[in-house]
Amino acid sequence: MFAPPETPLSRPQLGPCLARGGFTLVEALVALAVVSVAVVMMAALVGNEPRMLRRLEAHRQAWEVLETVLEGIRAGQVTERSGLIDPAPWISSDPVTEVIEVEIEEHATARTDLVRLVLTARYRVAGRSYQRSVETLRWEPPSP
After folding, report:
1. Do 117 and 106 form a contact (C-beta atoms < 8 A)?
2. pLDDT for 18-77, tens place per residue?
3. Would you list the domain boundaries of the chain?
4. Are the CB atoms for 132 and 70 separated by under 8 Å?
5. What is the DSSP string of 81-144?
6. Judging by DSSP bridges, how do beta strands 114-125 and 83-85 pair with one another?
7. What is the distance between the alpha carbons of residues 125 and 52, in angstroms, rounded to a whole number?
8. 17 pLDDT above the threshold of 60
């Protein structure tokens, strides 16, 4: 009826495996699987890094060419109204793209003194085509 309180000496002894505080084989295999997945993901990321850097550099160069051509239009150095222009004079560093072309499109607006310009750069990096565009308004003084 009444049970005496347990004392440390009256507890049953645990087996040798349970007495140690180590890991089981299943826990070790799960940990190994998690670490191996992380290593594989990091290797894939590091393997794609040069390709990603090249693509980012091409995007940067395309934006730089578009900005420079736009500044040339504003300064009167580029006189083309519409069509393709040669971007070679506007590229400051070695291009990482296979092909780069800049097209200017001029569109009329409701106001006769404003013209909408669309500059588009098309280029290829590692066999994939990309396109970047910038749109702005240009004021032209009314003709007398």
Report:
1. yes
2. 556 778 899 999 999 999 999 998 888 787 788 888 888 888 888 888 888 888 888 888
3. 22-139
4. no
5. -SEEE--GGG--S---SS-EEEEEEEEE-SSTTEEEEEEEEEEEETTEEEEEEEEEEEE-PPP-
6. unpaired
7. 10
8. no
